[in-house]
Amino acid sequence: MAYELYYWDGIQGRGEFVRLALEEARADYVDVARQSGRGLGAGVMLELMHSRLEAHIPFAPPFLKDGELIVSHVANILFYLGPKLGLAPKVEKLRYVANGLQLTITDLVAEVHDTHHPIATSRYYEEQKQEAKARSAAFISERIPKFCGYFEQVLQQNPKGSSHIVGDTLSYVDLSLFQVIDGLRYAFPNAMKAYATAYPALAALHDTVSKRPNLAAYLRSERRLAFNEEGIFRHYPELDVAT
Amino acid sequence: MAYELYYWDGIQGRGEFVRLALEEARADYVDVARQSGRGLGAGVMLELMHSRLEAHIPFAPPFLKDGELIVSHVANILFYLGPKLGLAPKVEKLRYVANGLQLTITDLVAEVHDTHHPIATSRYYEEQKQEAKARSAAFISERIPKFCGYFEQVLQQNPKGSSHIVGDTLSYVDLSLFQVIDGLRYAFPNAMKAYATAYPALAALHDTVSKRPNLAAYLRSERRLAFNEEGIFRHYPELDVAT
Question: Domain boundaries in chain B?
Fold first, then answer.
């Protein structure tokens, strides 16, 4: 039975981290809210989230349905799917290392979101623009170097070589790191301009992943939406550093 | 061999979610940075985080060492420890439900942190007090009801009864929910005043957990630090609603 992915239509957002794994593995899945042909849209997703009958409702999208089981949160979905898709380390202990890395990505993604929404998710960006500028400045000067420096060091110190973040084969964490770099470059092109010099292993990983046949085909397809200013990674020039 | 927990001394912080599980299970563990008798302090923790030799360095505390394996991030540590401590659901699929719930708690905790640090973690609260007021107002009016309402509904809809958040036995998620409620009541006493009426199952869970013999003994011990204004849950009266 096909996996069912539930996430907002129109943005890459957090759902994209799951899509990349499903696409790389060419898994059989339905992107429920995007299947306009089935006339579903986000309605079914919201209905499920607010169901009074469902035993285990998720707090927010994305979530994955595998038969009766609903798995929520990106890192949890990937932890669950990883072994099934051949995208998790074979050594069981390393799966906890992978999960730890993925949760660091989760934290980074939350901080990216807060660069444009530092006060309230419920309010428009325009209503918190001044605070967004202050938060973005701190994010660029302190947090990007901290996170990217960390991932670079982990890559460099991987006993199995710096081609992968954990173990000696591609994992879902590598795919997520590709997405993080892609997103940061979209949102903060000036701040990220020299990133390949500062973080060479991370840049190499981004390039290698983007050229994998299944992933490259996905990136060229209509299923890959473009980054936009409704998603997590948003390009507001006023939040980037000056050239 | 005893588990080694690495976390800052002086605060409950994120480490407390792990401590509660270890204490409830009466597990053999060393709270490394607090073992002043061993003359260690936070130095050993930071050394490990910045090691150039370690295969898998963690991004931030808390992390757990079990022999050679280092497991980082609260939800990951609990996912790893849960079955070993008898604090995870026995049905494997429910462990992903538990992990999803724990990750929702992780998100809530990050939002609590940002009520007093909405602009930059690196700067003092006093430097971002105005923004903290705005963020706290939104947190109290929108986010507390959303998160607590969600957990209340999950408790009420648990097919095994509302005494536990998942399955029919105590899990680490129940312990974490106790801590969240305890922390929110400390940080925002006015906003939380009527919480037991609004969220009866959550309030009952908090009370039941606090009375479990092992946990009650821990809460009375010197190992349980008091909440304070260096941790995640901070009581700044100006951020709470007026009485």
Answer: 3-85, 92-211
CATH architecture under which domain B3-85 falls: 3-Layer(aba) Sandwich (3.40)
Would the CB atoms of B76 and A93 count as touching at under 8 Å? no
What is the per-residue pLDDT across A42-72, written as a single tens digit (0 to 9) for each? 888 999 999 999 989 999 999 999 999 999 9
Of B58, B106, B123, the CB nearest to A100: B58
Alpha-carbon distances, residue B177 vs A95, B74, B148, B213 (angstroms): 26, 13, 10, 17
End-to-end C-alpha distance for chain B, whole angstroms: 50
Q: Which fold has domain A92-212?
A: Glutathione S-transferase Yfyf (Class Pi); Chain A, domain 2 (1.20.1050)
- Looking at chain A, which residue has its C-alpha nearest residue B119? A135
Q: For B97, name the nearest residue in chain A, comparing CA atoms only.
A: A71
ipTM of the complex: 0.96
Instruction: For chain B, list residues with pLDDT below 70.
Output: 36-41
Class of domain B92-211: mainly alpha
Q: To probe the interface with B, which of A93, A94, A107 has the most B CB atoms within 10 Å?
A: A93
From CA A40, how far away is CA B84, in angstroms rounded?
42
